Amino acid sequence: MPGTRPGMTKSARYEQAMSDNDDVPFNRNFPLKPGIVEEVRPGVRRVLCNNPSPFTFTGTVSYIVGRGNVAIIDPGPEDAAHAAALLEAVRGETVTHIFVTHTHRDHSPNTARIKQATGAPVYAEGPHRASRPRFESEKHNPESGADRDFTPDIRIAHGDVVEGDGWRLEAVATPGHTANHLAFAWPERKFNFVGDHVMGWSTSIVAPPDGSMIDYMESLDRLAAREEDLYFSGHGPEIPDGPRFVRFLIRHRKAREASILHRLAKGETDIPTMVRAIYIGIDPRLTTAAGYSVLAHLEDLVARGVVATDGDPVITGTYRMAG
C-alpha cells in the first residue's frame, strides 16, 4: 500500500491510505468465517452468509443489534444454514424487529424464515421497484436479482425512528443501488448500517433501471453530511471514518465520469468500447456490471445535456458529446 511504513497499525495504515491514495482506499481484509457470530462492537454482532461471489465478496453480512431484546438487519439470501446460524446466535434472546436495507436476493429472501421463527415484524422502505420505468428498447431483464416476493409489515421512510431495548435506529433514505434502499443510523453510537450503498471492499453496483446514478450521488452527499462515523456494510469489513470514505467514493465517481467524457471527446462510441478503455484488467465476470455502471453515468450525463444519444439511453446505444 503506497505510503505505509513497516510496523504501522491497521488503523494507521488505513489513515495513511486515506491521505495518500488518489482513489478509494478499499479494505479487503475480512477474515470472518460463515456461520460464526462476532461481536464487532458492544451491542453489534454480525454473522456472514456462505454466498461468496464477485458481487458479494465473501458473502452477505447480517447484523444483530442489542442484547436480550434484539433486532436483525438483513437476514440474507434464501439460505437455511444462514437462518439457522442467525437463530443460534440469538438463542435465549428475543428478536423484536427485523430490518431490511433493500430487496436484492442476497439481502431479503431469508426474512421469511426469520419472521416465521421469531414472529418479529419486518421494517423496510417497501417492495422492490425500479428507479425508472423500463424502456421499450431494453432487452435485458435488469431486475433478475430482485426479490419480487418481499413485502414489509411496516413501511418506513427517511427520518422515521424505531426504538428497541437499548437501541434506536433512524431510517436514512439512500436510493441509488436500488430505489428502495435504506440505511439505518444509530446516532447515539455514531454507527450507520449502510447496506450496499457504501462498501469498504469495492464500489457499489449501480445498474439502471434498477439503480440510478443521480439518486446514488445524492445519497452519498446525504451520508457525508451526517455525523455517524462507523459504517457497517452489507458485504465486507466495517468502515471507519465513514463520511470521509464517502467523500473518496464521490471523487471516484466523478473521476469515472471524467474518464467517460475523455473517451467521448475522441468521438462517438458504444458502452463496450468505453468499458475496455476505462476498466483496464477487469475481472471478465464483472464486465457486464461495469457496462451498466457506465450506462448509469451516461443516463446522468444525458439528463444534464452533456452527452447525447439517439433514442433512449440504453446499454446497446451509442453516445457522443452533446452539441
UniProtKB/TrEMBL annotation:
**Gene Ontology molecular function terms on file:** hydrolase activity
Basic and acidic residues composition bias: residue spans: 133-151
Under Gene3D superfamilies, the record lists: Ribonuclease Z/Hydroxyacylglutathione hydrolase-like (3.60.15.10), Winged helix-like DNA-binding domain superfamily/Winged helix DNA-binding domain (1.10.10.10)
- List all membrane-crossing ranges: none
In terms of InterPro entries, this protein maps to: LACTB2_WH, Metallo-B-lactamas, RibonucZ/Hydroxyglut_hydro, Sec-metab_biosynth-thioest, WH-like_DNA-bd_sf
- Can you give the residue ranges of the Metallo-beta-lactamase domain? 59-235
Q: Which UniProt keywords apply?
A: Hydrolase
According to its UniProt record, what is one Pfam family this protein matches? WHD_BLACT
Chain residue ranges for the region called Disordered: 1-26, 120-151
The name of this protein is Glyoxylase-like metal-dependent hydrolase (Beta-lactamase superfamily II)
* Organism from which the protein derives: Bradyrhizobium stylosanthis
